[in-house]
Amino acid sequence: MTAGSENSIARVVVDLALDREFDYRVPTRLSALVRVGSRVVVPFGKRSANGYIVGLVDASAYPRLKEIADVVGKKPLLGDRILELARWMGRYYCCPVELCVKCALPDVVRKAKFGWKERQFVKLGEISAESFVKLQNKAPKQARVIEVLRKAEGMFVSKLLQLVGTDAATVKKLAAKGFVELSERTEERDPFGGEVFLPTEPLVLTPEQQQALDLCKSRVAAPTTPVLIHGVTGSGKTEVYLQAIDYALHQGKDSIVLVPEISLTPQTVERFRARFPDQQITVLHSHLSAGERHDQWHKIRDGHSHIVIGARSAVFAPVQALGLIVIDEEHETSYKQEEAPRYNARDVAVMRAKLERAAVVLGSATPSLESFQNARRGRYALATLPRRVDHRKMPLMRIVDMRQEAIRRKGLHVLSTRLRDAIQVRLDKKEQVILFLNRRGYATHMFCPKCGYVGQCPNCSVSLTYHRKAEQLICHLCGYIERVPKVCPNPECRDPAIRYAGMGTEKVEAAIQHAFPKARVQRMDSDVMTKKTLYREIFNAFRVGKIDVLVGTQMIAKGLHFPNVTLVGIIYADMALHMPDFRAGERTFQLLVQVAGRAGRGDVEGEVMVQSFTPFHPAVQYARQHDFIGFYEQEIEFRQQLRYPPVTRLVCITARSRSESKAKFLAAALARELKKSLTGDHNVVGEPTPAPLARVQNWYRFQIILRSDQIMRMTESVSKVVAATKFPEEVHVSVDVDPISLL
Ligand code: ADP
Ligand code: ZN
User: Residue 739: helix, strand or coil by DSSP?
Assistant: First the structure.
């Protein structure tokens, strides 16, 4: 143990070993220069290494610390405000501040220099047809590189390697033969470089849009409360964002726009680029190459880009004069990061805006209960856009009662008679259909009707999903795969009459193909989407009418405009309702409304058909009426009765171990300590119980659910208790504040 004076020990992430932190003593001669975010040179083993300070502390668990050798550069990479934000995240989400700092700073920026692959640009050289054939026979990877380069002007080696799935040696061999040419590139890599678009002008707003915009502008001018725009799909929310950003620009302020990763499509980005043709708009998403990410980050930080669009982590974009953060589809669960730090970008955005005195605008057709309650209580200002801009009616939603269908047709069918007839009508008119089911595979269970055997994952407490085309049983949690058995695997039984129950997208596809042999059917789920480019290919094929029926999971549920889609079918609306989650009703409502938004975006009025076994569930009924307020009122009452968020706040602690008894024992010990330190009416500490997913990849999981009205105080106590608890090595504990999933 080393003790020092205040902040005399630096926690450093060394470029040579990025996944760990090492402690170093700060020599007095450097103490004035050293800050969190500083780049430093430190002794590392027998050599010296570059590193980056992620925290300053007073004491270290290690007895003999080496000293920091030097500080590089004048300016630390992280601004004071972002640093403060990271500290707040650490406290709020019960997470080491180093992790939050790492999260705010892309790896590639932290490492400062990036490698050969990111700097080298590769183009096709000269290669004869003969040599190419030779390559194809002798070195297929090299041949593949040539093929890819033939289609492109050239690209960074990193990108190429990613596309081909090979390593740098392959490229170097080709370069030695002159088949490809390498050059060094330091100029900026613009992932959208060379694209053209037609500039657009601001539209004349409807009175409701104008009100919403005025509210946003007033907040940009003088930040007070966040603004929530509750606007149905197609009501013109994006147009309001665009004009608010424009206003911010004129005030000399920067904007960040957060959208769910899945909505970060070229169409979305193009709308922004077209409106601000003179601006360098930065797009941050998970598919950027390291080099691109590096350039974009510096471009923003150096003040060359005033508009940033991105998914979750763009909330940390280092803009210099933050004026506005827009969070579109604010209810989306993908804003929550499911690994430490388990932050929600929406909530971090609100905090960042507060620290930097900027405006926050949240938008959704189906706001989260949390945000809408904030609006009701006056913590957020509310703007409502109740109508589609084009005055088109909301699509008609019909509910098919599958219980009656099952009685009438003596059994369960994928397609009800009504849905099948409706599809027929649309196909006859050469219109398009989208069918939605949020589960992939063919059947959800394999079972033996004779002995009752059910195919279970040996590593997880879930049943295996049957994939017919692949003839496999797959665990959707851990990826375990088994061949489909010919007879019941129970050695006492061995009956050949194995059956399958439940359905997934593969079965829907088969059912459609069977019912409409001439229809062109395409499935879209993560089994089909083995390549990123397929996503675009399939959507393009659908757009130009080469596909009649698109069957898919949540991948197809949002964000896209298809004018010729006149029927959307939801195969099994109740699926989310049966999840062990207090938000099941909210998720179902959101899903139905969002999916319904896909229908009838063109000139023909759309129709939505929802198959349900619980047609009178409020989530289904309110969705049918497109009645968000009605849904909110009844749902919030349910939350009040059971004291669930947003009425109270939750923390979910999970202890996991390979040993069931150790996980259980530790959860019990933690619960005891938590009960001791969290007293009073504000706090409830639940009993430790096995998690709904009791075993995942052979990790046994136990949960403790905590509730509180005073979340900051609760997380403070939780951090203390967790820090003071001695964990046996084989047990891991995670703390999830404001959890989205309680599985
Ligand atoms: P949302 O983001 O709420 O789904 P959008 O902003 O995408 O809605 O608007 C839907 C469509 O209506 C877009 O094609 C958009 O260009 C158009 N639109 C939006 N506002 C107006 C307006 N004031 N006048 C005319 N068209 C508009
Ligand atoms: Zn498994």
Answer: coil
